[in-house]
Design goal:
The protein is of the alpha/beta class and about 325 residues long. Strand 12 and strand 13 form a beta hairpin. The relative contact order is 0.16. The structure holds NADP nicotinamide-adenine-dinucleotide phosphate.
Length: about 325
């Protein structure tokens, strides 16, 4: 596919580096609001066309898929512009600021008959697929408890996207989404009950959020997120007869399964922090197959995830201005 990048920040850099591993995928154009930064990004990644004008970018007829990597608050708007220009879309997480926005974007994708997927790259990593294989093969028995954290001591810039409420700042939407998505994915459902505790930052977003959830199948999840504290960022899946441990699970390159007094360890060829090309390939394959959504990260999965995040936000009293828009 021929890709266009809508923003050229930190994650766009990782996306552009990893796509080089795929011989049939090419970035043909990029848009950035900052001309100097955008041009130097394009030079570095050998991208033919740079646009400082977003209308010109969306009118570029060579672009087939747009990768949206602006701050969270601009995801829905960017996706809608791309879809209305007839492009397929891969949109960074969180897909939108809340479930209402997500529904609106998905409705437009359906009207336009264009593919759209939330960039939940973790679900396409070989290590995570191995974890799902172990669970499906009943290695650890029925899953009883999931414990996962994603916490780091992040930027202290009150205007930066991590702390700024106007850019959707806060731990839950930035990193808490990963433990929550793993719990929803493994339980194949959304929580029937949620409780949560929060510590707010001076800017009014959640610096740390801890969630305890119960799923309809009885599975419990203890999920932590922080943009202020370096947590131990493992995913531990406890089953009736064993457990699976995945260090740095959102970018997992290694996992161990403990069962029947044995340990099986899987190590990916890829080092951690690399692996965005698996989702890129998955999107390309799905579009070539004529699909409008991906089987792994379906529209319903994204809507359920957004609804779960909304419910956690209700529990901790975290509100964004988008919540007041219909
Ligand atoms: N999948 C993953 O592993 C992963 C990892 C990190 C982030 N993400 C997601 O990707 C998105 C971007 O994160 P990032 O770390 O790449 O952020 P970033 O480095 O701050 O980049 C954001 C980009 O958006 C541009 N932008 C356009 N309008 C903007 C506005 N009004 N305010 C601020 N920036 C604006 C910025 O332009 P300038 O360069 O002109 O500032 C910059 O190029 C977030 O939604 C985040 O959740 C995903």
């Amino acid at each position: 596919m021929k890709w266009g990048l809508y923003a050229t920040g930190g994650i766009a850099e990782a996306f552009a580096s990893d796509i080089r591993k795929l011989k049939d995928e090419k970035i043909v154009a990029a848009y950035a609001r900052n001309e100097k930064k955008g041009r130097s990004f394009c030079e570095k990644h050998h991208i033919e066309r740079f646009y400082n004008d977003e209308n010109a970018f969306f009118s570029d007829s060579e672009i087939e898929v747009v990768y949206i990597s602006t701050p969270h608050t601009l995801h829905a708007e960017g996706s809608i512009k791309a879809l209305q220009a007839g492009k397929h879309v891969l949109c960074e997480k969180p897909f939108a600021m809340n479930a209402n926005e997500a529904k609106r974007v998905i409705a437009i994708a359906s009207e336009q008959k264009r593919f759209i997927m939330e960039a939940l790259w973790t679900l396409f990593l070989p290590t995570i697929n191995k974890v799902f294989e172990w669970i499906a093969a009943d290695r650890i028995g029925e899953v009883q408890v999931i414990h996962a954290n994603f916490g780091f001591d992040g930027s202290k810039d009150p205007l930066g996207r991590l702390l700024n409420p106007d850019l959707g700042g806060g731990a839950l939407l930035d990193v808490g989404i990963y433990p929550v998505l793993m719990a929803n994915f493994i339980a194949k459902s959304t929580p029937e009950s949620i409780s949560a505790q929060v510590k707010f930052t001076e800017t009014g977003v959640d610096g740390s959020t801890f969630v305890c959830a119960r799923y309809p199948n009885g599975m419990l999840a203890l999920l932590g997120a922080s943009i202020e504290v370096n947590l131990i960022n493992d995913l531990i899946i406890y089953g009736e007869k064993g457990r699976i441990v995945v260090p740095l699970f959102w970018m997992a390159d290694e996992a161990s399964c403990y069962y029947e007094d044995k340990v099986e360890t899987f190590k990916s060829d890829e080092s951690s922090r690399r692996g965005y090309h698996y989702e890129t390939q998955a999107v390309s394959d799905a579009i070539h197959n004529g699909q409008l959504q991906h089987d792994v990260v379906s529209h319903q999965f994204t809507l359920d995830l957004m609804e779960t995040l909304d419910r956690i936000r209700t529990e901790i009293g975290l509100v964004y201005k988008q919540d007041f828009e219909s």
